[in-house]
Specification:
Blueprint: H1 4-28, H2 40-55, H3 62-89, H4 94-118, H5 122-125, H6 130-136
Helix pairs in contact: 1-2, 1-4, 2-3, 3-4
Length: about 160
Amino acid sequence: MKSLSSWLIAMFAFMFWGFRVVATVLYSMGKEFIAEPMDLNMEIALLFITFICICFIAKRKLLPVTIYLIAHALYYGVFIYQNAMSVIEGTGTLNSYMSLFVAAIGVAIPLFAFFDVLLDKNRKAHPVDKQTDWFYKNEQFDRKVDERADRNQYKTL
């Protein structure tokens, strides 16, 4: 993660995750918050999946980011459809508008993360392995052998 956009996407993903944790905890305690979860059990499972997948955004792995996108698109996509239909029909309240906005953010962040990892040119061209790069990429520490090097084969008795 060398670009500013990658850091911002990861930071916004963690902030949205924290926001959803607070919303889920307050909903389970029976208090009102900006946006309520659609299904409490699915929201808790989604929070665990999201936390694991966000950690792999920094590692630039495509599979966890794809899982992150699919999970959020399936969960928040239904939420967007339900709230959009209530807004279109004219029966929408302030809560449905806010839920629509939060769900749109919930789909946008994984979409940005997916395209950021997918379009990263350095992910495949220059993979970094810290365990071996210190040995193979440090030519200044290589021994220089010249014509004066000792080539004798000494025998020990």
